[in-house]
Specification:
By secondary structure, this protein is of the alpha/beta class. It is built from twelve helices and 14 strands. Strands 6-5-1-9-10-11-12-13-14 form a nine-stranded mixed beta sheet, with helices on both faces. α3 packs across α10 and α10 runs antiparallel to α11.
């Protein structure tokens, strides 16, 4: 059995990215800067409303973006997810393997259905508004968990977007429990403020009596803890995780390494597209953690990767760009 730096579990989505305007968001009834779960009729209606725009398709899903960043930096990663036996599903498997990821997916085990898609609308202020039709990924369950790969990993990463679906949440909890039994640290991303606002109980179930590492942006941290400011959020997160990283946009990120609160600054840039910034941040950070970097250095690497990403379109960087970033931060 191979060993992996990180085992991840999350949704499998083919991203369809569109450059659009605030006026079109309003006309389509899309909530700006948020991720909204939609059903299949709404999915088709949105695509019809965007028919005059050109989509950029790519492999997606929050945790998949994170795992891809790890692999691009030279780490080994395993990703558990679920796609259908359709064109998009086979495209997704190829995208994972092309990026150097191991996965539970094989052509032989694919089921009939529709692979999930995320319609990403990017406005000129670089904000991304996501409408997600989960498709068959909403059926992710214990069957997709590879317990041997979990136990053979240096770290586990769980996507918060899984918590709305009971079977997926059960799978996430199983991954956590297998990891704990094997002595593998467990990380969770809160994923989106909508997840915190509407599914906090589900997140608390996955957190249980505390995790090893939580990733969050500032808005999510405030919502999760009920705090009025970032200092209060730091206090509120400490019972939930031994360590955590809070991204703060142009302010960089704030880390807690179990003993100290560390503020990691970042040089300001003009963002083009913020889609995937938190995912790439988590991937770079986990690569650093699993390669023995000091916690503060992990934050610097992660800030650099996210800062680079938001200056271009798309939720992922190309391999050569990530490798260049990694060379500037030798483990």
């Amino acid at each position: 059995m191979s060993r992996y730096h990180v085992y991840g579990i999350g949704n499998a989505l083919v991203d369809l990215e569109f450059e659009t305007t605030d006026a079109l968001l309003t006309r389509l009834g899309v909530d700006k800067s948020l991720m909204t779960l939609i059903d299949e009729p709404r999915h088709h209606a949105l695509l019809a409303g965007l028919a005059d725009l050109q989509a950029r398709p790519c492999g997606g899903g929050s945790a998949a973006n994170t795992m891809t960043a790890i692999a691009q930096l030279g780490g080994s990663a395993f990703y558990s997810c679920k796609v259908a036996n359709d064109i998009e599903g086979r495209f997704y498997i190829g995208d994972l393997t092309d990026n150097g990821l191991r996965t539970n997916l094989t052509d032989a085990t694919l089921q009939e259905g529709v692979t999930g898609k995320c319609i990403v609308l990017i406005t000129p202020d670089a904000e991304r508004s996501m409408s997600t039709f989960l498709g068959i990924t909403s059926q992710l369950s214990l069957e997709e968990v590879d317990e041997a790969a979990v136990a053979a990993s240096d770290h586990v990463y769980i996507e918060g977007y899984l918590v709305p679906e009971p079977n997926a949440r059960t799978a996430a909890e199983r991954v956590r429990d297998v990891a704990r039994a094997a002595g593998v640290p467990v990380a969770l991303t809160l994923s989106d403020v909508n997840m915190v606002s509407h599914f906090k109980d589900g997140l608390q179930q996955v957190i249980g009596d505390g995790l090893d590492l939580i990733f969050s942006n500032e808005e999510e941290a405030l919502a999760m803890t009920g705090a009025a400011d970032i200092q209060g959020a730091v206090v509120g997160l400490k019972p939930l995780a031994r360590r955590f990283a809070i991204t703060r946009g142009s302010k960089g990120s704030l880390l807690y390494d179990g003993e100290r609160v560390l503020e990691i600054s970042v040089d300001p840039v003009t963002p083009v597209d913020s889609n995937g910034a938190g995912d790439v941040y988590a991937g770079a950070f986990l690569f650093g953690v699993t390669n023995g970097m000091p916690f503060e250095r992990c934050g610097e690497l992660a800030n650099t990767a996210a800062r680079t990403l938001i200056q271009r379109f798309g939720a992922r960087l190309d391999r050569s760009t990530m490798q260049g970033i990694g060379k500037a931060f030798p483990a």
